[in-house]
User: Which sequence fits this backbone?
């Protein structure tokens, strides 16, 4: 370990040439800033991921059962009754989701139809997100529909009896009558009872919530459903209930929790996060290349020391090892300084929220950049910095002659 001990002395000692000191400090600062930036960006992605997880849709149940193949669960009513009897399950509701055409007072748009049972309002908490009217399944003899804010705006629809909402869906059975194309569609009329806003574009754009019987009539279903929404009893262990349902489902059905129901969104966040990490890692590599110039200047300064060590029996490999350790220590010191700086900045933003999002605060649901510091990210960035330091150290010493030079 003599090479390491000498490298530490070189790192801590004051260089005789001022340029070497300046370049060495620039190298450490460059690695530190790049490392801190990498950790901060990863933490911001974590913050947005946690924010999305904390705002999972009120329309998504705690657990959802979907078919492993195809899109239909046959005899879903009987299966929901069996699931409802499982320990820890408060309610199991068949749900029908399909695309349809909505027409209101001369305006039309394609919508995502969601047919739910009578207990949906009680189990989902949709009343908390209603911004106009109220959630109802029926008003007297008329079935009711609840529109997302996007559907209501596009159709210019408001709760009340001003006009009826017409829903159309293609017939699943029979032939198309070219003389009467409208006969190829099933239709139903509903009253607009309410409008909801969830502040999630996926659910606010084009959804229409109707009674499950209406959706089944439109789609020519009897007891089929596209999924079964499961609500867990208060105080019950969600993971325990999920395990029991997975054992019951076997290979025919898939049980998903709330995160898995939004799997595509979270996967996109993860992909963006690690692509950004790779790009920032290149910046760390570029910043670390300053070490090469630092080693060049240091070897020029220490050539008399190299001659002395060679005369005392030091091998070229040992001398080369000294400068490799030196370059690695420069990268490591910059990386550690950057990690400490990044951790401090992330904790400051997490606790104080000093960096705010641009725009009108009254129009934003989040006013500061969300940040969540992760131990795994700290370790990942540290390992990356160490690996880059080793590679750069090898490059710096391989390309430089450390043979003694006579004055």
Assistant:
């Amino acid at each position: 370990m003599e090479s390491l001990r000498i490298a530490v002395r070189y790192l801590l000692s004051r260089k005789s040439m001022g340029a070497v000191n300046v370049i060495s400090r620039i190298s450490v600062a460059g690695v530190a800033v790049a490392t801190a930036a990498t950790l901060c960006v990863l933490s911001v992605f974590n913050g947005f991921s946690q924010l999305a997880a904390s705002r999972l849709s009120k329309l998504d149940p705690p657990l959802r059962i979907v078919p492993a193949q195809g899109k239909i669960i046959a005899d879903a009513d009987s299966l929901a009754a069996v699931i409802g009897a499982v320990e820890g399950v408060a309610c199991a509701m068949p749900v029908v989701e399909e695309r349809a055409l909505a027409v209101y007072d001369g305006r039309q748009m394609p919508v995502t139809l969601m047919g739910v049972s009578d207990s949906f309002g009680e189990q989902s908490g949709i009343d908390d997100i209603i911004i106009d009217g109220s959630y109802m399944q029926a008003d007297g003899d008329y079935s009711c529909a609840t529109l997302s804010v996007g559907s209501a705006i596009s159709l210019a629809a408001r709760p009340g009896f001003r006009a009826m909402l017409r829903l159309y869906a293609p017939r699943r059975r029979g032939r198309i009558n070219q003389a009467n194309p409208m006969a190829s569609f099933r239709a139903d009329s509903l009253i607009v009872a309410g409008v909801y806003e969830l502040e999630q574009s996926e659910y606010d754009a084009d959804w229409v919530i109707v009674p499950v019987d209406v959706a089944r009539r439109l789609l020519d279903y009897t007891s089929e459903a596209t999924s079964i929404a499961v609500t867990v009893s208060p105080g019950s262990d969600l993971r325990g209930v999920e395990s029991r349902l997975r054992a019951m489902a076997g290979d025919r059905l898939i049980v998903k929790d709330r995160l898995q129901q939004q799997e595509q969104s979270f996967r996109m966040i993860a992909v963006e996060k690690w692509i950004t990490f790779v790009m920032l890692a290149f910046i760390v590599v570029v910043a670390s290349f300053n070490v090469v110039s630092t080693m060049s200047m240091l070897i020029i300064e220490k050539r008399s020391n190299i001659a002395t060590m060679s005369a005392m029996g030091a091998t070229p490999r040992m001398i080369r090892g000294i400068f490799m350790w030196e370059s690695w220590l420069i990268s490591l010191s910059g990386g550690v300084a950057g990690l400490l700086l990044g951790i401090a900045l992330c904790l400051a933003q997490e606790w104080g929220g000093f960096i705010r999002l641009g725009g009108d605060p009254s129009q934003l649901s989040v006013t500061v950049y969300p940040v969540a510091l992760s131990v795994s990210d700290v370790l990942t960035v540290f390992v990356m910095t160490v690996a880059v330091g080793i590679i750069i150290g090898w490059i710096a010493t391989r390309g430089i002659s450390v043979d003694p030079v006579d004055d």
Summary: The chain has 14 helices and eleven strands.
